[in-house]
Amino acid sequence: MSRFVDRVVIHVRAGDGGNGCASVHREKFKPLGGPDGGNGGRGGSVVLVVDPQVHTLLDFHFRPHIAATSGKQGQGSNKEGAAGADLEIKVPDGTVVLDEHGRLLADLVGAGARFDAAAGGRGGLGNAALVSRARKAPGFALLGEKGEARDLTLELKTVADVGLVGFPSAGKSSLVSVISAAKPKIADYPFTTLAPNLGVVSAGDQTYTVADVPGLIPGASAGRGLGLDFLRHIERCAVLVHVVDCATMEPGRDPISDIDALEAELAAYTPTLQGDSTLGDLAERPRAVVLNKIDVPDAREMAEFISEEVAARGWPVFSVSTASREGLRPLMFALAEMVAAYRAAQPEPVARRPVIRPIPTRGQTGFTVESDGDGGFIVHGEQPERWINQTNFDNDEAVGYLGDRLARLGVEDALLRQGAKPGCAVTIGEMTFDWEPATLAGDAAEAFGSRRGTDARVDQTDRIGAAERKAARKQRREHTDDS
């Protein structure tokens, strides 16, 4: 038995980037061929794509974990690793994407609409790409970055022109079945409709869609009954139609009180798409009232009695019978005119230009240094944390390269200004290490008593200089001549 699912939480994870390769070119009679390690491939991204053939989020209900493939490691002879394939996930038209905090990330409307749910990690550089004037033959490579992982909430909002609202068993499903080719479930008990029904109506040369949602009851906006779960499906409707049961025999109910109760629920409901520039709030949408079941004599008298009172609110009123199909044709053409008027009032659609947002790799110098309260320091920043993740700490040369990068970024000067001493604990990302200044420049030079271009640590050595060796040779010659 098929199920209708319109809200799910998915866990997406992009592919990791491949590691770079540390390799040296080897060829006969060329012992010093130079580094030739290739870069790692980027990880695959997870992309949500609107597919008109998909109508529910049921697949994500059973398989909420989605992961793209990772990139391959680079190889020698300057061979780059294969990139991970992007994983395209098909979603229904009208899907809204929310983050774990409930913030709106994307509103996917229209076939082919796309949203990058998780970005793949960048591949690490091979040692061939790390060659510099000071580092002729790097013996290390950078690790690939981890792919983005996040939890997203998908909500499906039916894309329709007209939304039918009403109490349970008011005849909404019957109305959709007689004015369109839709075949919803119809029965004589409340809450027969458990999923929104969508029908296409043709009135002359105009065509529009009608959505039927499960019945509303007082308190639906606060979570009572099924209304709260399906009120989102009328957020996109241009026209709202109250379907009123004029033949109800329930005590305490009458058509006017039903309309007032439904209006109170619509006003109390807070839609997800706050500030929608094209539709506005539910309370401001055009209204129409359908007085249903006039094939019953008492219901016809009730409809004639309240028609003027409802019309006084400025809403068009239609008395219909889905059983005898009386009054349906004027209703269909009137709704077509209301939808056409709404469409004409909307601004002309402007073709969206593709927006390319390249991933910045340089110039991200923002970082902060704070004390951990125990004599150590914590460095926060996207660039330092990314460098930590790229470093292989089993390779001393790679660790030295990391120290040079942090020093050029200004992390060492910032640590000194905060009062850091050599040997104190410094945490960057998930790595904690004992800090030793890599280069003495700027504030570090003043702290350790040397100027830029010199290093006081060079003098702290027992190595014999050239002048001492020359004096020793001169003494040996004189001693030989005397002998």
Automatic annotation (TrEMBL):
Positions with a binding annotation for Mg(2+): 173, 193
Localisation: Cytoplasm
Family of this protein: Belongs to the TRAFAC class OBG-HflX-like GTPase superfamily. OBG GTPase family.
Ranges where the record places region Disordered: 451-483
Higher taxonomy: Bacteria, Bacillati, Actinomycetota, Actinomycetes, Mycobacteriales
Protein name: GTPase Obg
SUPFAM superfamilies per the UniProt record, alphabetical: Obg GTP-binding protein C-terminal domain (SSF102741), Obg GTP-binding protein N-terminal domain (SSF82051), P-loop containing nucleoside triphosphate hydrolases (SSF52540)
Cofactor entry: Mg(2+)
A Pfam family of this chain: DUF1967
